[in-house]
Amino acid sequence: MRAVRLTQVGKPLEEAEVDRPEIGASDVLIRVAACGICHSDEHYRAGISRIDHLPVTLGHEIAGWIEKVGADINHVRSGDRVCVHYLAHCGSCKFCVRGLEQFCRTGEMIGKHRDGGYAEFVKVPGRNAFVLPGEIPFEIAAIMMCSSATALHALNKARLKR
Ligand SMILES: [Zn+2]
Ligand SMILES: [Zn+2]
Asked: How far is the CA of 92 from the centre of ligand 2 (A)?
């Protein structure tokens, strides 16, 4: 499949031909419909935000169709429109069970620590795929999962009252 990858910090991204990911029992394979370009992606490319594993397919603001699901996945099925939570986390540690998965010690950022959505397909843990309401276009859904979620979390943390 085709992918757009960061191969060297400070250099432009490169188009590459890579293997389509194999999924495990708890994963899903997504056919990418839209993937946002985040300021973080620019930081990785410029070396402002450190990235250790190169080459890597960037892109963590992902929306698309479920192509294939692992044996343990029941909440989505092939053909579903989904958007993706960008942090692959264990789901069972003391942080994850409290909804604080950003502190999960084994957490991996999709599109940084593992291949992301600047590709025809992306593999993500099934728990990271959320069914997308039909009225939300892929382009909006993709960036919603990062920029809107970040802003919403900040507002919640600030305990803003109406
Ligand atoms: Zn982002
Ligand atoms: Zn965890």
From this structure: 5
